[in-house]
Amino acid sequence: MSHDTWLIVMACAMRAFGQGTVFVLIAIYLHLVEFNLVQIGLFLSAALAGAAVYTLSIMFVCDTLGRRRLLIAFAIILAGASAMVASMEQFPVLFAVAFLGAFSVAGGGAAGAMQPLEQSSLSETVAEGQRTDLYAIYGIMGTGDWRLPSSRLIFTLSGLFSVDHFAGGLVAQSLVSLWFFTKCGIKLESIALIFFGSNLIAAVSLWVAAKLANRIGLINTMVITHIPASVMLIAIPFLPKAGMAASFWLVRSFFGQMDVPTRQPYTMAVVGPNERSPMAGVNSATMSVTGTVNPSVATALWNIGATSIPFVSCGVLKISYDLALWFMFRKVKPPEKARRAARAGAGDSRG
Fold it and tell me: For residue 269, which of 25, 282, 291, 341 sits 20 to 30 Å off, Cα-Cα?
């Protein structure tokens, strides 16, 4: 990897380490300072809405201000928001801070507006054949001028990914940790171990996904690994013991993030170099916009007693997304793979 690649990956790693100490505890923290479920949901939604606004803004100012300046600015904003959340307990103030600071609540290395900047920058630092491995490393350390066909491709893929993101927001790790705490009676120390284990397992799975994609393809890897994770997620709220629920969550973690290092290089590979920033920007923006209401919806359903509905809805939506993605894009290959297939076909015809 080049010097610039290392800088981006290590910055992602440091940010993810800091955020990882927060996203598991944020909903529990708000619960302990006596905010109700509706307020917790509004806080999480405000944070996601702020990230969506920033992500949309990137599309218009990225080329003018530059990716480096924007990454530094968003890092400072997030740091300031974190300090304010830790020092204030007035809900209107915290709500505003969550929105303006795009406070990280999703986990899994999610970086809001910083993610499309990092992804589009990484794609230009290595050769096309190395992107899948690079995005696997990036996921482990963390997870313009358009032609008409590409713009249709961009918005179709982004629309599908937004469905997946909306579904995932119904069981965001912040809310799942609160569910383990309030519904299963698991102590904070044990919750910390559960999520440490799940993130460690997910990190290993990202590398496995990169190697699997080299054998069966990017789209196949996304779909084949995602569906078992969704089935296990549906089962979690119906399990009779907390230990079983935690075990299912850990196993689900292995499969649940294997689409991350495959999705990112696929979206960067199927468009031209001048379209990668728009692809990353539209992709992140649509996911952020559709994800802003998820915590509020999930906590509202939970508040009326239907704790299983977010888990079931998430699983069903994710399975529907996986099937739609496979049927629509299983034959859409990245240019380098199409060229290799064409060369192989030409060689066979000469033989």
Answer: 291
